[in-house]
Amino acid sequence: MNIVILSRNPHLYSTQRLVEAAVKRKHHVEIIDPLKCEIIIEKKNPAILYKGRHLEHVDAIIPRIGASVTFYGTAVVRQFEMMKVFSTVESQALVRSRDKLRSLQVLSRAGLGMPKTVFSNYTKDVAEIINYVGGAPLVIKLLEGTQGLGVVLAETNNAAESVLEAFNGLHARVIVQEFIKESKGADIRAFVVDGNVVGAMKRQGKEGEFRSNLHRGGSAQIIELSDEEENAALKAAKSLGLGICGVDMLQSSRGPLILEVNSSPGLEGIEQATKKDIAKSIIRYIERNV
Q1: pLDDT above 80 for 216
Q2: Average pLDDT over residues 239-254
């Protein structure tokens, strides 16, 4: 098969591993920067130009679209779909997952557990919001934040009020969530491919850090999910329509609580923690569908 990986950086671990896995299974692979694609819109003849040539005879694409290029990256994925090319992540699911507020609403409608969450439109009544999530400590997240950036732990009600007022003053949209003390700075990432959890790891924040992101110095180890955790991960992926995703959740006294679902999860942390060939699982997913 001819497989295209949509990635802005061919040297990233995830991109390289996908290339290795595809070549090992005798496929032809090309890495293409989605921002350098030209979208040709014509009646019954959708096409994509890349560096002056038409992209033709593509069997499948693997979108590795960063959050900062979601708009154009999604348009490129959509164009491939119009050309009847299989995508491991559908354009609509990509858009849905990138909108944190919308994705939380979808997960809530699906009946999944999550931390108490409040979103408001620059309200002046910050005390009411703080009280609703159970008071401090609480977590405040920028809607546009990624990799743990734009996430603040407010230890006291006064601190929470100050942070919320500051974000409101900057017209920055935020989500306020209850702090799950029993998670102790750790979360779980379940990696879902085609309706199966192919790997799971527990990420622990470094000393004094409540965020468990590996980009922020956190550590990871393999974990065996409980049936409840596995079912929550699969239900989250299905509700958002994602064939491939990383489902992040907290362990709590009331069961697994979904934090977010990542439609372009990195492979390095999960492969190193689990020693599993996740890239191969993704290529086999394509083989089953093309």
Answers
A1: no
A2: 96
- Rounded to two decimals, the pTM is 0.90
What is the three-state SS of 178-215? ECCHHHCCEEEEEEEECCEEEEEEEEECCCCCCCCCHH
- Find out whether the peptide bond into 115 is cis, omega within 30 degrees of 0: no
The whole-angstrom separation of Cα 185 and Cα 205 is: 5
Residue 111 Cα distances to 156, 166, 219, 243, 256, angstroms: 31, 33, 30, 20, 12
Specify the DSSP element, H or E, that contains 161.
helix 157-169
The sign of the torsion formed by the CA atoms of 237, 242, 246, 248 equals negative
What does the alpha-carbon distance between residue 108 and residue 180 come to, in Å, rounded to a whole number? 18
Q: Please name the residue that has the structure tokens 């896995």.
A: 21
